Amino acid sequence: MIPHMTYQQYRAARRLVHQCCNYDEGNCLALSGWDTCVCVQSVSYSLLCRWFRAAVLPQDASLCAALLYCNQMKPCAICGRSFLPKSNRAKYCPDCASQERRRKTRDRVRRHRAEM
User: Fold this and answer.
1) What is the pTM of this model?
2) Average of per-residue pLDDT across 62-85
């Protein structure tokens, strides 16, 4: 199944296309051979290029997760943004996880000090 992008995802992918090693002034060196061939990833709203999927897209982790792992995404319990969990127990995105860990540690230490 080939994922389809929204306009914002398409614009982010277009920015990444320029970092591809096969991209040369709008043309794809891997496809062109002897004549010029337009880079399919720069004009399409779907992920068609295997090289782009494997080598270039992982540079933007959020875009990669949104496009390739959309069935495995979970919403964060605090901010509501979607994230790719590293385990089946994850409830928070990486940004909120550190804040929640600090809050729980603060509450635990506060309870401990109150007992003394």
Assistant:
1) 0.59
2) 85
